[in-house]
Amino acid sequence: MDFALPDEIISMQQAVREFARNEIGAVAADLDRAPRFPWETLRKMGDLGLLGMLTPPEYGGAGLDTLAYTVLLEEVAAVDAAHATIMSVTNGLPQSLLYKHGTEEQRRRYLPRLASGEWIGAFCLSEPGSGSDAVAMETRATRAVGGYVLNGTKAWITSGGEAQFYLVMAKTDRAAGARGVTCFLVEKGAAGLSFGKPEEKLGQHAAITTTVTFDDCFVPEENVLGQVGQGFLIAMAGLDGGRIGIAALAVGIARAAYEAARAYAAQRTAFGQPIHEHQAIGFRLADMAVAIESARLMTQRAAWLKDRGYRTTSEAAMAKLQASETAVAVTHGAVQVFGAYGYTKAYPVERYFRDARVTEIYEGTSEVQRMVIHRQIYRELGR
Ligand code: CAA
Question: Which residue among 101, 160, 216, 329 sits deepest, i.e. has the most Cβ atoms within 10 Å of its Cβ?
Fold first, then answer.
């Protein structure tokens, strides 16, 4: 139900729905079976403005608000989560943070290439030994003449090795905890920058994920983003936006699974009637519809608040938690509605089921979202 959406968002939604079905839908299952980074479809998404949605037009972006972003991201995710993940990361983290914290020179140098989709952006926070406990990162940046030298390894980096632009958090002061992290802009091709092999994942195969290693990688002074020591706060505030994107993406996966199950349950018969007329299936579909609607409303509300300048730490975490757990439950239920067929590649629900699982893990696990929500509850009480 899009009752609250402005007309211009609804017309963009229709256009992107059509584009996603025709262009991304044509390759999604093949990319799942034989994974490769989907540059061809990404180029077309770039032409439509989908890879620079939040970046203002003066830097080559579409200049849309977060609400429109969630609606269009849902459309892409409803066809293929891997494309949506690449889209969400490049829009929601590197570009948004570069626009928010970058100098004019940094914005001019990088945003037009990212916003057009010529370049894809990646976000480097997690490490092999620190995911949820992000402050425990080991990657360090030491002062050198004219800049910093980075050493360390980042892990689970979406678009690793394919992206041309890396926003990297590294410790500039190991004794200062969260205040000892600084954010750096690193281009692919920098000496000392290398990538691991693509991870073999349960789902979202085309959203290539690798380690990113810095081995005496020099980063010039002008590629520090924001203030030295502010990198962790920049990353956390960025994730407040990024998590709204992941919530929208999870709603899209859930919707795809629900729509497939709804159609199947109308045409498959058992015990003399379409299976949706059996209460077990009918109620399951009803529960799916309620969960999706709830998750979408929470996601769109978080976006709406962000667009009005509110801090959305809690709302983003709640939306991401609700939507990702909905995606996992709905895709699980959809496989059940399809029975044995759902367990095969004859229908896409098997792919949706696998693709959904990581939404409970990346950009902060469900446990991290609960930590964030819990802390905000007591912060609001002033305790
Ligand atoms: N906005 C602004 N500032 C924030 C903030 C926010 N949302 N969250 C925390 N901060 C600030 C705090 O105010 C604090 O500042 P002060 O020093 O002034 O007090 C500082 O940051 C440290 O915060 P915490 O004390 O809360 O830090 P913590 O060590 O307890 O960790 C955490 C908090 C919420 C668990 C955090 O570590 C976290 O979110 N972990 C998960 C990280 C994550 O989501 N990783 C995903 C990586 S992205 C990805 O998945 C890659 C991809 O390609 C998809």
Answer: 160
| Residue that the structure tokens 């999870």 belong to | 250
pLDDT, position 2: 53
Retrieve residue 256's tokens: 């795809």
Q: For ligand 1, say whether the CB of 371 is within 6 Å of any of its atoms.
A: yes
What is the residue-wise DSSP string for 198-252?
PP--SS-TTS-EEEEEEEEEEEEGGGEESSTT-HHHHHHHHHHHHHHHHHHHHHH
Closest by CA to 224, choosing from 320, 102, 123, 112, is: 102
User: What are the residues whose beta carbons fall under 8 Å from the beta carbon of 288, sequence distance 6 or more?
Assistant: 254, 257, 258, 261, 329, 330, 333, 334
Check if 363 is active-site: yes
Strands 140-144 and 121-124, bridge-based pairing: unpaired
So what's the pLDDT on residue 1? 44
Three-state secondary structure call for residue 165:
strand
Cα gap 6→9, rounded to integer Å: 5
Note the pLDDT of residue 3. Answer: 60
Q: Which residues of the chain have pLDDT under 50?
A: 1
Question: CB within 8 A of 72, min separation 6: which ones?
Answer: 12, 13, 16, 50, 53, 64
Q: Is the CB of 168 under 6 A from ligand 1?
A: no
Q: Residue 229, by phi and psi: left (phi above 0), alpha (psi -120 to 50) or beta?
A: left
- Tens of pLDDT, residues 295-341: 999 999 999 999 999 999 999 999 999 999 999 999 999 999 999 99
Distance 168 CA to ligand 1 centre (A): 15
State pLDDT tens for residues 143-186. 999 999 999 999 999 999 999 999 999 999 999 999 999 999 99
Q: Per the structure block, which two tokens stand in for 37? A: 């980074």
Q: Collapsing DSSP states into helix, strand and coil, what is residue 2?
A: coil
Pair 115, 96: CB distance under 8 Å: no
Establish whether residue 236 lines the binding site of ligand 1, counting it when its CB lies within 6 angstroms of any ligand atom. yes
